[in-house]
Amino acid sequence: MKRKIELLAPGGDIDSIKAAIAAGADAVYCGLNKFNARNRAANINFDDLDGIINLAHQNKCKVFLTLNIIIAGSEIPDLFRLLNKLVNTKIDGVIVQDFGLFYLLSTYFKGLEIHASTQLNTHNDGQIHFLSKLNASRVNLARELNLNEIKALTLTAQKRNVSTEVFVHGSYCISFSGICYMSSVHGGNSGNRGRCSQPCRDRYVTTPKGKNFPLNLKDNSAYSDLRKIADAGVASIKIEGRIKKFDYVYTVVNCWKKQINRFYHHNRVSSDNSELYRVFNRDFSNAYLTGDINKNMFIDNSRDHSVTYLSGKYLDGMNCHSANENRVKDEICLYEEKEDLSSDIKNKINQLSIAKIPLTISISGKTDTPLNVFVKTPDNSPVTSFTVLSKINLASKKKNSNAECLNFSILLERLKSINDTAYYIEHLELENLQNDLFISFNALTLIKKRILFILTGSNDRIEPVNVPFLKKQRPFKTKPVLCVFISSQKDLHLCKRTSADIFFQIPNGLQAEFLVLKDLFQKNKKIAPFFPSVLIGENYSAAVELLEQARPERIVTNNTGIAYEACKRKIPWIAGPCLNIINSFSLLCLKEKFNCSGAFISNEISRYQIKSIIRPADFKLYYSIYHPILLLTSRQCLFHQVTGCKKNTIDEKCIQTCNQSSTITNLKKVSLFIEKTKGNYHCMYNHKNLLNTDIVKDFPGFFSGFSIDLREIKTETNVATDKSGVITLFENFLNGNPDSEKELKRNIYPTMNNQYKKGI
Questions:
Q1: How far apart are CA 288 and CA 222, in angstroms?
Q2: What are the two backbone dihedrals, phi and then psi, of residue 152, each rounded to the nearest 5 degrees?
Q3: Could you give the 3-state DSSP secondary structure of residue 200?
């Protein structure tokens, strides 16, 4: 029999969760009001979670909870309170992005199954190994991957007893997930905190190519590719849409469920996706999946495409109006049909209930007999009625004893934690309990635990875990070093003119430059390779080979796959700024699990959020105080919609040879800089560079080093000196020379450091 693939559906609110269950989803992912990456969704309250799980399990559907954001240090106590409750539910798994949360789960909450979020941008073998070492049992692969890449990664994952999950329907992002800072920089709404305001969907000043929505991609739909996805060994296919309404969720899940059933029962896959066009869409593309990354993936319109598509394709056959009547009437007809569909779906989900299951608890007993607790459950309950007896006998209250007699309020107080499950105490009956009886608190606790054990499926209740104490380290006595980030060999002369640490950027398309880079690092052992966030396929393999052959003294990496390989080879490594480190437990995770020697703190967080970070012993902290602000990195060509391109499709040759730049301008008249350099993916940068001199004064003795980025990336920031002069300016500043800060700001302008003030 064929292995059945899981259909994983979104649940932004209770109605959407019910819709997914009613439509036949095998699993649903949903978030609470905190700690999840869809703050724009309605989300659910913890009090509803047990009822949702109970309803889902009755319908053979799993529930995964999204805890998929980076977590600030001040939030750790609240996180522990949530996890202490969560381990006593029947949740099927949690979806995680933050390394600190991975560490806490794998150390203190081992009963919770861990899934790696798409925000971790998993696209190479080393990342699979890295996440496996953090006890991830499932990995959501990057949306930009093609079928061959998915198949190869799935094979690697299976060898580590890790399953893979792939997005098959819903919104595409123009950027690789987890490394998009556009919303954070321009609106203070971090995508890594679930607050993305989707500026990539906005209207911009019309481009030279005549486009108004130059970053707006069509939606992903792999509907006709199910067979190929199944053949790749993928365990779960995921529908995006936690901010979509219940009718959308039901329609899409129902359509995909029918497709899955056709495939498994009749060995047939339909190409008729007309039902998917009846609900919100931006038109569809499967170009990432097929490896044909082309300009037709874009759509120059941010509105719902369903009306436009269906009125042109299907309304003629609806008998709503004659062909001669105007389009407005056709659209009204379609909206009426949508309303009818929504009403039908609403009726179906109204028949599903997440209400807690009522219990009647009857307590009886008399002197020198056990306390008898009879728990009556409804006929349709997963658990049949049962009786629990105390281990010791009841006793009469002694005349001078201070012990309280058993009464309604005492018993209700001792049993109230039952209400924290999928059940609640509707009636507590004491008619057959003799007056003036006493039994120890421990005996009542054992009765409660036994009741909970039976109600929760023979699972012992797990006691709360306290937040671990982290010892604050002494400040560094030495001055922080200056680290200089370069990407061109013509800048190697800077090594001779400064004592600063030099980091050299490795390109995304490393394979073509392998021999040159190997020679560079073998001859310049003090230069540290700086590995990028994205290294796919042969370029990742080349990066691993570079580690093996060049054997650098240390590296910096934004890619956890390279971190894993460096750890395996005992090469000291520093976690880069795009690994989004914002809390102490993330640092502890990287040090203890992967022998990390230091880490950059994320530039997204404020001075107040940095203050809560406690570094581990013998561990270095870094911060980038000057750089062009990366907004996004894309596997797609960003010039298609801006200046145009002679080629319809982007390929490996484009990555290796294309070297150009352009801008787009938003309606606030702010220009964003598109940069494509040889060997790298397309990137977009902010109009002003970051310059943060405040952090040096705010955190004396806290950081080991501060980095500056001297790559040649054009923005509106002017630099009135050469690169050697820039290094001298920063060296003077770090050495505390008088007026050095003013001199810096006179030579480098305009700049910004908004995120340091506002945070996430």
A1: 10
A2: -65, -45
A3: helix
Structure tokens at 384: 């049949």
State CA 737 to chain mean position distance: 43
pLDDT in tens, 482-539: 999 999 999 999 988 889 999 999 999 999 999 999 999 999 998 999 999 999 999 9
- Nearest-CA neighbor of 376 among 393, 366, 391, 361? 361
Closest CA to 226 of 218, 234, 214, 216: 234
CA 538, CA 512: separation in Å to the nearest integer?
A: 10
Half-sphere exposure (Cβ direction) of 249: Cα atoms closer than 13 Å: 33
Provide the pLDDT confidence category of residue 723 given band limits of 50, 70 and 90.
very high
481-630+689-758: what fold? TIM Barrel (3.20.20)
Q: Which secondary-structure segment (H or E) carries 650?
A: none
Would the CATH topology of 6-172+218-350 be identical to that of 481-630+689-758? yes
Q: What is the rounded average pLDDT of the residues 437-460?
A: 88
Kindly state the tokens that stand for 643. 């200046």
Separation CA 103–CA 361 (nearest Å): 41
Q: Please tell me the distance from the alpha carbon of residue 146 to that of residue 159, in angstroms, as a whole number.
A: 20
Exposed e or buried b for every residue in 361-370, given b needs 16+ CB within 10 A? bbbbbeeeeb
When the pLDDT of each residue in the chain is averaged and rounded to a whole number, the result is 93
CA distance 95 to 72: 17
The first and second tokens of residue 577, run together, are 């700024």
Q: Is 707 helix (H, G, I), strand (E, B) or coil?
A: strand
What does the pLDDT read at residue 323?
Answer: 47
Those residues whose C-beta lies under 8 Å from the C-beta of residue 332, and which sit 6 or more positions away, are none
CB 252 within 8 A of CB 258: no
CB half-sphere exposure, 86, CA atoms < 13 A: 26
Convert 282-308 into a string of H (helix), E (strand) and C (coil): CCEECHHHHCCCEHHHECCCCCCCHHH
Local structure of 263: helix, strand or coil: helix
Distance CA 136, CA 160 (A): 10
Asked whether 67 and 102 are in contact (CB, 8 A), the reply is: no
- What pLDDT is stored for residue 187 in this prediction? 86
Band of residue 742 on the pLDDT scale cut at 50, 70, 90: very high
Round to whole Å and give the CA distance between 163 and 138.
Answer: 5
pLDDT at position 33? 83
Radius of gyration from C-alpha coordinates of the chain: 29
Mean of pLDDT values over 97-106: 97
Nearest Cα to Cα of residue 113 among 185, 65, 58: 65
Lowest mean pLDDT among 37-51, 131-145, 467-481: 37-51
Q: Are strands 284-285 and 136-140 parallel, antiparallel or unpaired?
A: unpaired
Task: Pick 6-172+218-350's CATH classification: 3.40.50.2000, 3.40.50.300, 3.40.50.12780, 3.20.20.70.
Answer: 3.20.20.70
Check: pTM over 0.90? Answer yes or no: yes
Q: For residue 258, how many C-alpha atoms fall within 13 Å in the half-sphere facing its CB?
A: 12
Tokens at residue 128, please?
A: 């699979």
Q: Where are the domains of the chain?
A: 6-172+218-350, 357-455, 481-630+689-758
Residue owning tokens 């190869």:
152
User: Which residue, 434, 443, 454, 424, is CA-closest to 360?
Assistant: 424
The answer to whether the CB of 302 falls within 8 A of the CB of 216 is yes
Dist CA 246 CA 663 (whole Å): 39
Distance in Å from the first CA to the final CA of the chain: 49
User: What are the counts of helices (DSSP H) followed by strands (DSSP E) for the chain?
Assistant: 25, 32
Confidence at residue 84, expressed as pLDDT on a 0 to 100 scale: 95
* Mean pLDDT of the 432-461 span: 88
Do residues 219 and 213 touch, judged by C-beta distance below 8 A?
no
Choose among 268, 196, 186, 197: nearest CA to 226.
268
> Is the pLDDT assigned to residue 348 strictly greater than 80?
yes
Structure tokens of 759? 């945070």
Dihedrals φ, ψ of 500, to 5°?
A: -65, 150
